[in-house]
C-alpha cells in the first residue's frame, strides 16, 4: 500500500525546510487565568445573508467522535467548540434558530475574539458565486447542499496540531493521539461547570506541547517524525499564525517553511484556518481515488487528480468538498488498512 494520506490515513509530508529554532513566547499560547472560567458569557446573534448549514460548515473542524474540543447537544441543535485565540482559550456554543439567525455564546479570555469572528467562521468571507460545476456529481451536490460554505477559523495552531498527527497514519490512530494529548496536556474548557459539557478540553498550546516528555509522546502513539514536526512548529507558532492573514498559496508556503510540514499538511491547515477554496490535499491516500471514481469511474494518482481538477481552479478544493458531501463511495476492492500501534514499538 502506498504511504499516502487522507480521511482515514494521514498525509505524506516532511518536504518543508527547517524553521526558526529560537526560543519564543507564542502569542495566546499560555492558558488563561482561572477567573476566565466563571466570567460572564459573551453573546452575539448574526443572521447570515445566505443559506447556512451550520453543522456542515463547522464539521471539518471536528476530529472524530471523541474529539474533546467538540460536543453536540440537542440532536445536533447546539454545537460546542473549544479553541485557542490570541487572548486565551474560548468555549463557544453555536445555535441556529428557525429564522436562520445564529446565536453564539462564549466563555474564557478569548471569547470576545472568537465571537467577533462568527461571520468568518461560518463562511461570510467565502465567495462561491463564481464556482462552476463541470461534472454531474458535483452539480448535484451543489444543488442539494446550498448551505455549504468554506469557513475560516482564523487559527493556524489549532488546525496544525491535529493535521500533523494525521500524517501517514489511519484516522483512528490520529484521532486517538489527539484525544489523548488534549485530555492529558490541554486545560479544561473555560466556562461554568454544569453549563459547558463535562470533559471538554482546550487544544494543547505550543508551550504545553514543548513541555511534553518523550515517553508521553510514545504513550500517545506519536512516532518521532510527527513529534519532531509538531515541536518545530510549536517553536515558531506565533509566526505561523500570519499564514491565515496571507491566505492562498502565500500562506501555504509560509507553513511549509517548517520542517515536516509539506503540501498535504499545509493544505489541510489552509482549508480550515482560512477556508482556502483551492488548497487540495495532494498526497492523500483516499482523495485521488474518490475523485477519480466519482468523476471518471476509475482510480487516479496525484497527476491524474491534478488534471481532472484543473477546470475548477482556483476553486479545486471546493469541488473536492462537494464530492465528499455527495454521498459517493468508491467501491472497495481489498482489505482495510490495519492501524499500527506505535505504543507497542
TrEMBL record:
Q: Region Disordered: which residues? A: 1-40
Q: Where is the composition biased (Low complexity)?
A: 20-30
Q: Which UniProt keywords apply?
A: DNA damage, DNA repair
Q: What segments bear the compositional bias annotation Gly residues?
A: 8-19
In its UniProt entry, what is this protein called?
A: DNA-3-methyladenine glycosylase 2 family protein
Amino acid at each position: 500500500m502506498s504511504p499516502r494520506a487522507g480521511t482515514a490515513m494521514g498525509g505524506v509530508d516532511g518536504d518543508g525546510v527547517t524553521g526558526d529554532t529560537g526560543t519564543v513566547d507564542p502569542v495566546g499560547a499560555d492558558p488563561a487565568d482561572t477567573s476566565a472560567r466563571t466570567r460572564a458569557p459573551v453573546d452575539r446573534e448574526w443572521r447570515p445573508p445566505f443559506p447556512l448549514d451550520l453543522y456542515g460548515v463547522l464539521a471539518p473542524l471536528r476530529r472524530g467522535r471523541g474529539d474533546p474540543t467538540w460536543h453536540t447537544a440537542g440532536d445536533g441543535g447546539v454545537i460546542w467548540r473549544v479553541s485557542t485565540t490570541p487572548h486565551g482559550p474560548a468555549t463557544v456554543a453555536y445555535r441556529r434558530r428557525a429564522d436562520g439567525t445564529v446565536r453564539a455564546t462564549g466563555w474564557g479570555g478569548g471569547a470576545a475574539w472568537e465571537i467577533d469572528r462568527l461571520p468568518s467562521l461560518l463562511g461570510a468571507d467565502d465567495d462561491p458565486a463564481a464556482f462552476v460545476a463541470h461534472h454531474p456529481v458535483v452539480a448535484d451536490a451543489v444543488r442539494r447542499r446550498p448551505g455549504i460554505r468554506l469557513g475560516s477559523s482564523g487559527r493556524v495552531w489549532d488546525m496544525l496540531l491535529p493535521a500533523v498527527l494525521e500524517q501517514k497514519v489511519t484516522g483512528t490512530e490520529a484521532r486517538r493521539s489527539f484525544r489523548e494529548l488534549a485530555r492529558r496536556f490541554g486545560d479544561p474548557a473555560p466556562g461554568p461547570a454544569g453549563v459547558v459539557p463535562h470533559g471538554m478540553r482546550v487544544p494543547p498550546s505550543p508551550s504545553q506541547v514543548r513541555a511534553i516528555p518523550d515517553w508521553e509522546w510514545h504513550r500517545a502513539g506519536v512516532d518521532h517524525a510527527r513529534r519532531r514536526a509538531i515541536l518545530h512548529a510549536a517553536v515558531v507558532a506565533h509566526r505561523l499564525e500570519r499564514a491565515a492573514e496571507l491566505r492562498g498559496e502565500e500562506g501555504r508556503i509560509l507553513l511549509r517553511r517548517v520542517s515536516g510540514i509539506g503540501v498535504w499538511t499545509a493544505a489541510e491547515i489552509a482549508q480550515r484556518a482560512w477556508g482556502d477554496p483551492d488548497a487540495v490535499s495532494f498526497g492523500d491516500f483516499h482523495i485521488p481515488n474518490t475523485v477519480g471514481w466519482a468523476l471518471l469511474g476509475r482510480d487516479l494518482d496525484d497527476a491524474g487528480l491534478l488534471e481532472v481538477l484543473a477546470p475548477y481552479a482556483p476553486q479545486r478544493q471546493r469541488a473536492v468538498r462537494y464530492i465528499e458531501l455527495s454521498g459517493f463511495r468508491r467501491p472497495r476492492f481489498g482489505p482495510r488498512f490495519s492501524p499500527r500501534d506505535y505504543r507497542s514499538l
